[in-house]
User: Fold this.
Amino acid sequence: MDNLLWIAMSGAKENFHSLAVRSNNLANASTTGFKADFENSRAMSVFADAYPTRAFAMTERPGYNMDGGAIETTDRPLDVALNGDGFIAVNDKEGNEAYTRFGSFEIDVNGNLRTTNGLQVLSDSGDPMVLPAMLSDIQISNDGTISGRPQGADSNVIEEFGRIKLVKPDDYKNIEKGYDGLFRNIDGTAMTEDQSVQVRSGMLESSNVNPVEELTSLIRIQRQYETQVKMMESASQMDERQNTLLSYD
Assistant:
């Protein structure tokens, strides 16, 4: 009965992983620019002399849904939503280049343009985007160029201060999503700027998570997990009965 136990245990492990993925999606249903994840696994044979007939489910690199979320109007000049494919280049917590669709920005006391969750936004040169701290009449054009009126300048004076680095992968198979929700090239290289990527100012892209679908999936996966546990219990009971029969003279 160990074959049954092995298969049920492997299935339960994958169900447990799926529950974590779906729960994370549901928790980010209101996160700006969030892209839903989905679990990915495949059947694998156990390559060992003692277990030539066993198989198990092996977790693969998670997939993600790159469909666009709904566009919400905020009328805030430092909010942008990507128009179609593409990403905004930022520095992650370790200072390495990464990519996001979270387009809510702010200017800190040192003039650094950051996302409202604390990530440094990069310019088209790959350097941190730095702006005058006291900047008014801020505008972000469709190509990511930031302009505004410096402190003390005449009301009709508008200056350009740089362009946000916008990128688009050649193939989405070549990027991966980290545990921090940021995207990166699998090979660790930085993407080059893509001037075809456009943004829409005064708007934000909402999460593309469908809460109803995620709740339905959670219920389905939970039931599958319970079935796998029952199979393991049945396998154990069958082993006990088999041992009882074999113990008779």
Remarks:
- The helical segments are 2-27, 211-246.
- DSSP finds two helices and 19 strands in the chain.
- Residues 66 and 205 are 12 Å apart (CA to CA).
